[in-house]
Amino acid sequence: MALDYRKCAEQISANIGGGANVVSAAHCATRLRLVIADNSKINKKALEDVEGVKGMFESNGQLQLIIGTGTVNKVYDEFLAVTGVSAATKDDVKKAAASQMPLWKKILKTPGDVFVPILPAIVASGLMMGLVEALAKVIPSFGASGWFQFLDLVANTAFALLPVLVAISSARVFGGNIFLGAVIGIMMVHPALMNAWTVTPTNQPEVWVTLGFLKISAVGYQGHVIPVILAVLLMSTLEKWLHKHVPEMIDLFVTPLVTVLTTAFATFMIIGPVFSVLENWVLAGAQWLVTSTGGIGALLMGALYPFTVVMGLHHMYNVIEAGMLASGGLNIWMPIASAANFAQFGACIAVAVKCRNAKLKSVAFPSSLSAALGITEPAIFGVNFRFMKPFIAGVIGGAVGSLFGAITSLGATAYGVTGIPGYLIINNKLVYTVLLLISGGIAFAVATVIWKEEKAEDAPAEEPKKVEAAPFDAPAVIKCKNGVVKQPVKGTVVKREDIPDETFAAGTLGDGVGIKPVEGLVVSPFDGVVSSVADSKHAVGLEANGMELLIHVGVDTVNMKGDGFDCLVSEGDSVKAGQPIIRFDMAKIEKAGYNNTVAVLLTNSEDLEEVVCG
Amino acid sequence: MKSFEYTVQDPIGIHARPAGLLVKEVKKYASTITLSKGEKSVNALKLMAIMGLGIKQGETVKITVEGDDEEKAAAEIEAFFKANL
Question: Within an 8 Å CB–CB cutoff, is residue A559 touching chain B?
């Protein structure tokens, strides 16, 4: 019989003096690890008899209960619910920070979270696709050759089968099984389905199933993003719910089966059709805007275009372009797409130039290059849409550029390429140059002005932070929304959990890090104010921008009563980053028999957002 | 409003670790809890402020509890002081 997790958790709680007696609770693969305030309240005998507890021992100030793989996490969840104790791990702090985020922010953040891990794939594909397609336009014989077919295959794999990558990444983001996620992604581009890119008004997919007003059409989701993210979100939510509610014995086969089947139905019957209706509206709307309303329509479309890229709808615009050319006119759609794409290029290159984060730079440059060649997904998803402001800058640039294109009657004689390769098919190369300069230039300028790099985001710890006046370039050891705490002592950074003092390690005094010092000097980790100094001179409290920081030299060194410590500041002093605060004698600490690890803790870390330590 | 006085027994006074435990305890209650030593009073939720009082062994502090659960909070916090400090 499956273990009653709730009952087990309740009995554990009852025998350790209740939630009030729990300082922190965590679990590893097999054990529930508790830090107990008052050990005298523990009823060891009764604990060992609790059904589900296979053994217990005390170690490192922790009460460890052996529960077993696969069940410990469930007992842990119930234990938290029963006792009202909050989980003390870093992940949970992060999650708590994320859950405080407003919903719209979370929604905007999701595509970015999904896309960042798959960027290398789409950057490579984007660049190759731009080059191969341009080459095919320049040398028609290449376009007709097998070489082109092969290179085009290599180039567009990541795009045509984008749903697979998106699905796997989404499953990771939403906490679902990534292989089930992959199945959903592959299903959405299954070879048995008609390729979405080949659907035209005359070439419609077969309808396989009709259930009232619900239908399943045999069409794939090539190049799509949002429907895939939604499908996997549904899948992950369902999977997690089922894991919780399906009895353990049949969990392994029931949960994946039900998850995949339900998600498949929902995707093909609801999510997919809703999107294809939306797509058709967008398509019809776009065509009407551009052909019937002149300059204003072009302006609007230039602004809306990147949003349709986000939705994955832009692959259908070929239909509009082909229609324009077929009716004997010029392709006036292409200048709009070019303006919009080139504006995203401008915004992305602005980020690439302005950012200091080496990692972001290395993403932004190739992404913008790809955007200049007309493939904007890497730039939009990897950079612009993630930070939003550059995306808006691109929208503005694209709108103005499109208006210019409409006024000057720019048009193309073919379709399929935009951006730089667009020169091959445009009717007026000089005016086209101006169009690109306007869109890219405006986007670049706007992005440069409105976008500022958020220091906390993605800044690798080892990146030196250069301050103009007094360069104190120690790496950051703690980061949060309010600012960064640079390393205040030279030495090796260790995890908070590894500080050899259970109160510090358990996070009772807040989250942070320990530092094994190599020299006896503590300097201020930021510009701030000294809020308290211990009489025994071995610890100081500092405050800056809502962050309350405790720097505590050594473990139990309070007992040295100030001998070997010299505090160079007093309460109320303003300090600058890098300013010496405490000198301490490492030899004396060692002689006194104490550990000299310096604890650097944000004592109000619970109230701060996005705290990252180490 | 409830209040009580307590003379600190802990040889190191109320420094980082005991202060941290105190904040943890105080957080459980809805009441506003104030810790005073002589003229200075601080919010007992603020770790830095508590440490700033520099409370040593043998010194007497006054704890004031005000709020909906003050009865319970005062009793339990007094017990906490006796057990830990």
Answer: yes
DSSP state of A116: G
Say if residues A380 and A399 touch (Cβ distance below 8 Å).
Answer: no
Contact check, Cβ <8 Å, A603/B47 = yes
Looking at the 3D structure of chain B, how many domains does it have? Answer: 1
CATH classification at residue B52 = 3.30.1340.10
Residues in chain A with CB shorter than 8 Å from the CB of B51 are 532, 534, 539, 541, 550
Instruction: Say what the alpha-carbon torsion angle A485, A486, A488, A491 is, to the nearest 10 degrees.
Output: 130
A20 touching chain B per CB within 8 A: yes
Q: Do domains A5-88 and A476-613 have the same CATH topology?
A: no
Q: Is A510 touching B (CB cutoff 8 A)?
A: yes
Considering the domain A476-613 in this protein, what is its CATH number?
2.70.70.10
- B15 a catalytic residue: yes
Mean pLDDT within A377-383:
86
**Which two tokens mark B56?**
């040593």
Q: Which domain holds residue B38?
A: 2-84
Cβ distance of A534 and B21 shorter than 8 Å: no
Amino acid at A538: H
CATH architecture under which domain A5-88 falls: 2-Layer Sandwich (3.30)
From the list B24, B47, B52, the residue facing A571 with the nearest CB is: B52
* pLDDT bucket at A456, cuts 50 / 70 / 90: very low
pLDDT confidence of residue A90: 37
Name, in order, each residue with C-beta under 8 angstroms of A566's C-beta and a sequence gap of 6 or more: A537, A582, A583, A584
Higher-scoring residue by pLDDT: A217, A337: A337
Sequence-distant (≥ 6) Cβ neighbours of residue A433 within 8 angstroms: none
Is A338 a residue whose pLDDT tops 60? yes
Answer whether 0.80 is exceeded by the pTM: no
A558 part of contact set with chain B, CB < 8 Å: yes
For chain A, the domains span: 5-88, 106-450, 476-613
Considering only CB atoms, which chain A residues are within 8 Å of B49? 531-532
